[in-house]
Amino acid sequence: MNFPKSIENLITEFMKYPGVGRKTAERFVFHTINKLDKEEVKTMVQAFIDLKDNIKHCQVCHNLTDDDVCHICKDEHRDSSIILVVENAKDVFSIEETSQYKGLYHVLNGVLSPADGIGPDDLFLKDLWDRVSKDKVKEIIIATSSTQEGETTALYIKRVLENTDLIISRIGYGVPVGLNLEYADQLTLSKAIENRKKI
Amino acid sequence: MNFPKSIENLITEFMKYPGVGRKTAERFVFHTINKLDKEEVKTMVQAFIDLKDNIKHCQVCHNLTDDDVCHICKDEHRDSSIILVVENAKDVFSIEETSQYKGLYHVLNGVLSPADGIGPDDLFLKDLWDRVSKDKVKEIIIATSSTQEGETTALYIKRVLENTDLIISRIGYGVPVGLNLEYADQLTLSKAIENRKKI
């Protein structure tokens, strides 16, 4: 026997989320029925709609923002001579939480992965080349994950930029090998930025 | 630093769900941004709206249904002389999955819990007394959880009905003590119904 259709549908939707199996999805749906009133579900629904309507990529660094240019790129107190390159917008927020880094960012929106058919043109790399040629950038810190794809991407960026005057560094020890950046604690992330080494 | 407001809002909403902490909520939101397109989010939103619009309590047994009377109460092949009393609608679906029980249900929508101020009037108990007096009910199986509140509720029902001709039983061994019914496997639930004992 199945649940009524409306329950079954929302279970299916919840199961699209990472780490949510059928049992967890069922708990979520029954929580929605039993613990959230109509007004609260409306708020939830509105939050979904607002997210998709308002969140976009910053025109400069591709960080997520509800504006055209993100508040980091807009901030004149930040050191615009350093660009820290990350895989995803989430990594920007993780690093910002350390309050250690005062430069700018560049979000690639992924990593090079020939096996999955993801090449340089699929990432925001062209914009990075534009930024380093136009702006007074002195240093690039590459903070892609220490996975194989992350390392490949770091190497690729280094090779493209190695004949320029730019200092190219990689965040240093501190980030455990094989771990995604989003799982690293703030101290580890601070250390990693502090101990970056030239590549 | 916080996330943009639209991201922060949906994180807050996800954190209302059981077992969802801040990190998990963040993952869910970034999954929504990165992996679900506008159409998929629309489907999700619609599923929430449909759930709140369509799902109601069965007028007879208070099971969840998208109809006025649930398909179990409507089913003429079921044995209407037995009513199995459960705490929540979710328990109905758990027991239905065993395909062992052919009687009807009655959903209390909670358990007696004086500490939380939940008394007999807060549960669908009056409807249960109505059903047993009106219909040709011969047996009541009480399947509340084996927690203190579940046991108290079972005892309360037994006391109210003990001067009637009804056979009153409690689901038997099989359900581990202290476990909520929804976590029990199907075999355990089947056993528990089979081994019910008169109280």
Automatic annotation (TrEMBL), chains A, B:
Keyword set includes Transferase: no
GO biological process, alphabetically ordered: DNA recombination; DNA repair
Pfam families named among the record's database cross-references: RecR_C, RecR_HhH, RecR_ZnF, Toprim_4
Classification via InterPro entries: DNA_Rcmb_RecR, Rcmb_RecR, Rcmb_RecR_Znf, TOPRIM_dom, TOPRIM_RecR
Zinc finger (C4-type): 58-73
Keywords from the UniProt entry: DNA damage, DNA recombination, DNA repair, Metal-binding, Zinc, Zinc-finger
Toprim domain segment(s): 81-176
Gene Ontology terms for molecular function: DNA binding; zinc ion binding
Function: May play a role in DNA repair. It seems to be involved in an RecBC-independent recombinational process of DNA repair. It may act with RecF and RecO.
Protein's UniProt name: Recombination protein RecR
Protein's organism: Hujiaoplasma nucleasis
Gene (UniProt): recR
